[in-house]
Specification:
Layout: H1 2-19, H2 24-34, H3 37-42, E1 45-48, H4 58-67, E2 73-75, H5 80-93, E3 101-104, H6 117-121, H7 126-142, E4 147-148, H8 172-187, E5 199-203, H9 222-229, H10 231-238, E6 243-246, E7 250-251, E8 254-255, H11 260-270, E9 276-278, H12 283-286, H13 295-305, E10 310-311, H14 315-325, H15 331-347, H16 360-366, H17 370-381, E11 385-389, E12 400-405, H18 431-439, E13 443-448, H19 457-462, H20 475-488, E14 491-497, H21 516-527, E15 532-537, H22 545-550, E16 553-556, H23 564-572, E17 639-641, E18 645-646, E19 650-652, E20 657-666, E21 672-681, E22 693-702, E23 707-715, E24 721-722, E25 728-729, E26 733-740, E27 746-754
Helix pairs in contact: 1-2, 2-15, 7-8, 7-16, 7-17, 8-10, 13-14, 17-23, 18-23, 20-21
Bound molecules: 1-deoxynojirimycin.
Length: 755
């Protein structure tokens, strides 16, 4: 019986393909006519699973679900071997043999792991970001994956929120560029087996969770929503992203998962999104926790809002048949979503060959290849932000004695940050190992752990520190050992900061300082009088006022990925000059959060000369300034900017444009990249506008002594914003152009837009 169905639609498929390329609509219509309501609902069920060979408990249940035809997709199951087992169950053991879609959190690499996404954004190198996504797609598809839950493009202005690590920072213009690069890299044309469907997430506004606490509510004006948050999602949609993942949060009182305005009116009708929508993990069922009704009611609400795939909660399969019976939804509503999922499977060619992506030979060649590792090393070096370099302490010489200290200096499991589901830790080097290899025969490097991450073992447990790799040891024994090593060294390199899981989902912090035990270690190392280089690890902007005042050299290395150790050596020892620039502002105090450069003007801004004045918009105990502002990052060389030249001083409202140019010269000794930044400001408008907004950037390579002209085209489109009526307009009048090396170090010229 089952085989006759397979034969039938293979025949149908072949007929259709011969007749007119492939008529997917016709094929899917034909298939759906044969499906029962239950089978259609089964297609909307997306389940997580662990390796099939381990006793994950849930797997047996999932196997049964698959065999029953109750599953449309599974996620985070990896590898040709395991995926083939599940695919075979679906194809050979269900009535209609509909293949499974395999999704996975491929976020910043697969087995070759790139730096955290926030770090990648600091490269301001869209080619590199696209290349990272391309390599991730090649590796993941070779491992049987069709679909990644990336890019995450949530704008975040609050460093307490731990998922700031997964996005591109606080700026929507840069965020949109990163979103486009990632979708392009993952998907290509989606016509070959090494390209993978992308999923833009978390729609929408998840990065604005109140108080920086994960899953929390968002209450936001339309002005802010559309001028500051929506652009990156829209950019991904315009780039043709295949799917959207809905965010956990509520938006102005309606959870995104049940928000018809968001998912249907805005996303589909206004923006023209044609792909499919998945909920986040268990979010359909959790609508009940938002007080939206019982499981049946919330399942109906999610479906009607526009959620096609129910990820992880099994609520659709448990409730929708019944919801149809009692009229909460109709079979036609189910059909719409089912059709979208089947369409995707058809376009991926899974009906022609369900095992298309399951080629063990390919898997062997693609994963963690030499070429992929070289790319990860090169790209990681582009993401390290040089925050301070007093007296040119860096780069270090490749000779002498290096005392490498800190719990992150020799921690294999901590190199790659939190989203590395396919990590093969045993293959990656620690910084200590990479440095020994790098300096072989030139300099001597010795290591001491120096401290635990936190004094409190419970804090380490919460951040999933791997105790079998790094047991919690006696604090003073650790410190004494590190100080002995410091005495031996000519220079101390301290690898300190957040362990990998202190960022990512559900690791929000109310304290953004360096963890206590490590802070004390750093103080003790500085007290030796030896030169100290801090390699600061973090998945977020941290509070670094004290470090900035006391440590001579600071390189912010985020979580640098599987090749991070070698990449750190490339920069530390001067083979590569740092070129990264921050995409989030670094505050002086957690009390400043949410903290971001592109805020709107107030009636009483902080005074310029004296940061505190009574009855102004300032705190009494801390200025409004950043320790390190958005766009900031030093180099081993120096750059000089000529005055800005405009091609004309006024343009007309109706499609006018001008060019702003600046000559940048490398005035130092090292060849290096500089990221030239353009900001605009609309000083008189119908609504309050940000004091400055990034509107252009260019990453230029300059040899020592070389000059290049960098030009930005400024069109009236670039000046548009959503006004009080939500019209997207450019208003005539004066505009300020600011060009420079970071969001504060800028030169300004003005021009007019005339009616
Ligand atoms: C929950 C996370 O919010 C989301 O980003 C992720 O893709 C899913 N879980 C699947 O793992």
């Amino acid at each position: 019986m089952r085989y006759s169905f397979i034969l039938l639609y293979l025949l149908l498929y072949v007929q259709v393909s011969v007749a007119q390329e492939i008529d997917y609509d016709k094929f899917v219509d034909g298939l759906m006519r044969k499906m029962t309501l239950r089978e259609k609902i089964g297609q909307l069920n997306l389940l997580p699973t662990g390796p099939v060979t381990t006793a994950y408990g849930q797997n047996e249940e999932i196997f049964e679900d698959v065999r029953r035809g109750d599953v449309g997709g599974v996620f985070n199951l990896r590898g040709v071997h395991d995926n083939t087992i599940i695919q075979r169950m679906a194809v050979e053991e269900t009535r209609l043999g509909i293949p499974i879609l395999f999704g996975c959190d491929v976020i910043h690499g697969y087995e070759t792991i790139f730096p955290l996404n926030i770090a990648l954004s600091c490269s301001w190198d869209m080619n590199a970001i696209e290349e990272m996504a391309r390599i991730s797609a090649r590796e993941a598809t070779a491992s049987g994956i069709h679909w990644t839950f990336s890019p995450m493009v949530d704008i975040c202005k609050d460093a307490r929120w731990s998922r700031i690590s997964e996005g591109a920072g606080e700026d929507p213009f840069l965020g949109a560029a990163v979103a486009r690069a990632m979708v392009k890299g993952y998907q290509g044309n989606l016509d070959s087996i090494d390209e993978m469907m992308a999923c833009v997430k978390h729609f929408a506004l998840y990065g604005a969770s109140e108080g920086g606490r994960d899953y929390n509510m968002v209450d936001m004006s339309c002005n802010r929503m559309f001028n500051e948050y929506m652009l990156p999602y829209k950019a991904a949609i315009d780039e043709g992203v295949s799917s959207v993942m809905v965010s956990f949060n509520d938006i102005n009182g309606i959870p995104a998962t049940a928000n018809k305005w968001l998912l249907t009116d805005l996303l589909r009708k206004q923006w023209g999104f044609k792909g499919f929508i998945t909920s986040d993990h268990s979010a359909v069922k959790e609508l009940s926790n938002h007080s939206l009704g019982d499981e049946r009611e919330v399942s109906a609400k999610a479906l009607l809002a526009g959620v096609d795939f129910d990820m992880g909660s099994r609520s659709y399969v448990a409730q929708l048949e019944n919801a149809v019976k009692c009229g909460l939804v109709s079979e036609a509503d189910v059909d719409v979503s089912c059709r979208r999922i089947l369409m995707v499977k058809a376009k991926l060619g899974l009906f022609e060959n369900p095992y298309r992506f399951l080629d063990a030979k390919r898997e062997k060649c693609e994963l963690y290849s030499k070429a992929n590792r070289a790319a990860a090393r090169r790209i990681a070096a582009e993401t390290f932000v040089l925050l301070k370099n007093a007296n040119h302490l860096l780069p270090l010489s490749k000779s002498g004695r290096i005392a490498l200290v800190g719990p992150l200096a020799h921690a294999r499991t901590q190199m790659h940050g939190n989203w590395a589901v396919a990590a093969k830790n045993e293959k990656y080097s620690t910084i200590f190992e990479a440095m020994q290899q790098y300096l072989k025969g030139k300099a001597e490097v010795r290591y001491s752990k120096g401290s635990n991450y936190f004094y409190d073992e419970e804090m380490e447990r919460r951040t999933w520190v791997n105790f079998s790799e790094q047991p919690h040891l006696n604090d003073s024994i650790l410190l004494d050992d590190a100080l002995r090593l410091a005495e031996w060294g000519d220079v101390i390199v301290a690898a300190l900061g957040e362990p990998g899981d202190l960022s990512g989902e559900s690791s929000c912090r109310t304290n953004l300082d360096m963890p206590d035990a490590q802070h004390d270690l750093l103080k003790a190392l500085l007290a030796t009088g030896k030169p100290v280089v801090l390699l600061n690890f973090a998945g977020r902007p941290t509070v670094m006022g004290w470090e900035n005042a006391h440590v001579p050299a600071i390189l912010h290395v985020w979580h640098p990925g599987s090749e991070g150790g070698a990449a750190i050596c490339d920069v530390l020892f001067g083979d590569v000059s740092p070129s990264a620039k921050l995409t989030t502002s670094f505050p002086q105090s957690v009390g400043q959060e949410p903290f971001y450069y592109n805020h709107r003007a107030t009636s009483r801004p902080q005074a310029k000369e004296k940061w505190f004045e009574k009855f102004r918009s300032n705190y009494i105990d801390c200025s409004n300034d950043a320790v390190y502002p958005f766009g900031y990052g030093l180099s081993y060389t120096t750059f000089e900017y000529s005055p800005v030249i405009l091609s004309c001083n006024d343009i007309c409202l109706d499609g006018g444009e001008l060019t702003a140019s600046v000559t940048v010269t490398n005035t130092g000794k090292y060849d290096a990249f500089e990221v030239v930044q353009l900001y605009l400001h609309d000083p008189v408008a119908s609504i309050t506008r940000p004091i400055k907004e990034l509107k252009g950037f260019e990453r230029v390579f300059l040899k020592s002594g070389e000059s290049k002209v960098v030009s930005f085209k400024i069109t009236t489109d670039l000046l548009k914003f959503y006004n009080a009526n939500m019209d997207f307009v450019c208003e005539p009048g004066l505009f300020n152009i600011m060009i420079g090396t970071n969001s504060e170090d800028l030169q300004q010229v003005d021009f007019m837009v005339k009616e």
